[in-house]
Design brief:
The protein has four helices and four strands; from the N terminus they run αβαβαβαβ. It is α+β, with helices and mostly antiparallel strands and 100 residues long. The protein has one domain: 2-Layer Sandwich (Beta Polymerase, domain 2), CATH 3.30.460.10.
Amino acid sequence: MERQVILREIIDSIKSLKKDIRKKYRAEVVGIFGSFVRGEEKEGSDIDLLVEFSADADLFDFVGLSIFLEERLGRKVDVVPRDTVRAELREIILEEAVPV
């Protein structure tokens, strides 16, 4: 039960930041995947987020979003742009991802 509570808190936090994420970083968080979704997270686990950046987003948006989310969530965040996911991993990640 605790795992679901932690995952729900992360999702709710990200949802509350969606407007800022869109405006400041030209991005949309698509979903959360990885150890938190599978219930395998440990104390030092990062949060894996699948993100869709707009066509005009740049490296500053990517890095800025990572820092912004880490500060707000209090944990290391791995921002994974959806269009950079290798084909052999895409299906696995998309099946596992919990929408945000």
